[in-house]
Amino acid sequence: MSSRPPASPSRRRFLAGGLALGCSAAASPLVTPIALASAPWDNRLVVVILRGAMDGLDAIRPVGDPDYAALGREVEDGPPGDGFWARHPALAPLDPLWAAGEMAAAHAVSTPYRDRRSHFDGQDLLEAGGTDLGPASARSGWLNRLIETVPGTTAEIAYAVGRERMAILDGPAAAARWSPDARLALSPATQQLLELVQHEDPAFRDASREAIAIAAEVAGQEAPEAGEDRRGAHVQLARFAAGRLRAETRIASFSLSGWDTHARQSQGIGVALGRLADVVLTLREGLGPVWEKTAVLCVTEFGRTARLNGSGGSDHGTGGAMLLAGGALRGGRVVADWPGLSEAALYDRRDLMPTRDVRAHAGWVMRGLFGLDAGTVESAVFPGLDLGPDPRWTL
What we know:
- Helix 6 packs antiparallel against helix 7 and helix 7 packs antiparallel against helix 8.
- This protein has 2 domains: about 60 residues, no CATH class; about 300 residues, Alkaline Phosphatase, subunit A (3-Layer(aba) Sandwich).
- The chain has 11 helices and 11 strands.
- Helices cover about 30% and strands about 10% of the residues.
- It starts with 8 loop residues before the first helix and ends in a 14-residue tail after the last helix.
- By secondary structure, it is an alpha/beta fold.
- Strands 1, 4, 5, 6, 7, 8, 9, 10 and 11 form a 9-stranded mixed β-sheet that branches. Strands 2-3 form a two-stranded antiparallel ribbon.
- The longest helix has 23 residues.
- Keywords: Signal.
- This is DUF1501 domain-containing protein.
- It comes from Wenxinia marina DSM 24838.
């Protein structure tokens, strides 16, 4: 793993002092400390929240189930599967990762959330990682509790990336946050100050330039010195996360929206899955050799109805799928205790029946990556969880 040069005195003063740099601390990504901390383990974990409820039956299609086509679902040929499973065509760019065992899925999964099917409550429970929501004042995120289990860590071991609040990292354990803010505007005097501070610290200079570029991209502005490399904000966020993880950060989390496909799902989910493929490939490229030590979990608040509605979309459901990626995985497969899609087998006769807790798959990945014992996962990280049998996700 490459090492970062030691921070210069000017850089330490800059970070410690929290200079306003012409804008508020809440608005500027530049006052978020970017000096990163070491951790007692070398593996990395990335959690991507797919906000809006990804339709797992469309992303990872159980075409071998005799009741699948009767639900009005797409049965066109997608990327190669194993006869029972087929992947949505928008995931085709990830075919080499499936072939290399660096991409996988878990199907018929959900959090303990049931019946109300509210995005807000579903996302809260997904990020809290418990069995029920309870009072908001008592909640913490499961990634924050993971950090609490490891002595001697500091805030920059974990990064919440993006403009949305990442409740998954909320809690008493310190975690760093970085947000490209559209209101970022640096005066000439501020830019001169940055040049002075960065003069003898190329690592800090490059990181702050990247911060400015991402903020400008998100705002739809022309990024300074961006050249021909201006790409979507989702790719820029993944690139930022990869840069931190390539150094000493061990955990990163951010979210992707666009999964609420009530109408014309064939169009909407294709775009969303294409963005997700971009993100995974960007992480793989940006992490370089660190990819072999990395697991990426892509999770969503709940699934969608098994049958498509009259608008060619799907409504809020229960069971769904999670996607996994990374060189640290034993992938190339779909893991599921498949319940079937007959009306009698559906949850409430409308949704895919969940047969495994999504937290169990996340827990087994963390056990393999970080060496956590089962009791810690089931009590401290995911209270009330029964891990169940080991799906052997990690190498």
